Structure formats: C-alpha cells, structure tokens
Amino acid sequence: MADTIDDDEPAFPTVEKVFNINTAKGFEHCVIDATQGMTLRDYFAGQAMAGMLASENGCSLPAWPDDSTLESRAVPGAYKRLAVQDAYAWADAMIAERRRRKQQVKNL
Prior knowledge:
Layout: E1 17-23, E2 26-32, H1 40-54, H2 70-74, H3 78-106
Antiparallel strand pairs: 1-2
C-alpha cells in the first residue's frame, strides 16, 4: 500500500460561491464558504463498512488475527476496532487503485 494516504480530497466537493447582492445600500459582495465535509477516504471506508455489515452470513467481516489472544479479544470494542481498521484498509486500497488509474491516464 502507499506510504502516505491522500486524505484531504473531499468526497462531495462543493464550490465556493461569490456574488453581489443588490440591497437598499447598493451592491454588496457576498461569499458563501463551502465546506468539504467528509474525505474521500472516509466515504470509501464507510461504504466498505456498510458492505461488511450488510452481508447475510457475516463472511465479509474480518477474522481475528491468528496471533490474537483471548485477552485481546475480550477488550471492549476490540472487534469494532478490527472491523474499522479493515474498512480503512479497503478504502486505502481503493484510493491507491484510483491513483494508479489516474497515473495511467496521464501516461497515455
């Protein structure tokens, strides 16, 4: 996987809007700031998690690592952390593939 994940690309980018409004005082310059919301990585991870949880037989959920102990499995929230880490691993893989395909297009 990539050493650094490009985490700042927005999932649903919006455009900052700049316009003038005609008021009683004349035209006033207005700016509506756009927020980026969640990152593309967060969106991909959420989609991966939704797919894991939607599986009828649970086979999409991650398995405990072979080296995990009963004590490590008993920690509250440990399995949720494992599932979230797996979802972000899928997101990172999607971003890496997306980056690879963009580079292929640039090289044409």
